[in-house]
Amino acid sequence: MADADTLIRQVRKLLTPKTILHVNVPNYNSFHLVWAYKSGIIKELGNLTPTARKLQQNNTFNSKILNEFMNKNGLKVIESGSYFIKLFNHSKMSQLLNEKIINSQLLDGLYKMTEYMPDLGAEIFVNCKLL
């Protein structure tokens, strides 16, 4: 389904007052995308990347836009955050692992780095309830 508003309206029909809906989406303000933007590799933030298009993504979100989207669609955000400070795109991160430049201990550290950079994780999430 290409239209995020239509999708969330359909999901809302399944919710009860006790339901907590968890939504997880890619973050267009991810550290690696902001770094690429500031380095001049990409022209602007918020555009769908070639990888996003390949994965059939139709929308881009940052934390603020995701929260506003949920509120606009009748959901109250009760928790939000991000996961994993990603240094590079997926193929470069895989290459770093395959060539043993980084290991699982360093990856674990990148997951924990959102404590210091809460809006720069590669993925953002919200937990919501009906308004």
Sheet with the most strands? 3 strands, antiparallel
Give the uncertain stretches in residue-range form.
none
The strand count comes to 3
The number of distinct structural domains comes to 1
And the CATH topology? Answer: Rossmann fold
CATH superfamily: Vaccinia Virus protein VP39
Please work out how many helical segments DSSP would assign: 6
Task: Please give the CATH class.
Answer: Alpha Beta
Compressed to H and E, one letter per element, the order equals HEHHHEHHE
Strand content: 15-25%
Mean pLDDT: 93
Overall structural class, as computed from helix and strand content, comes to alpha+beta
The percentage helix is 25-40%
The appropriate CATH architecture is 3-Layer(aba) Sandwich
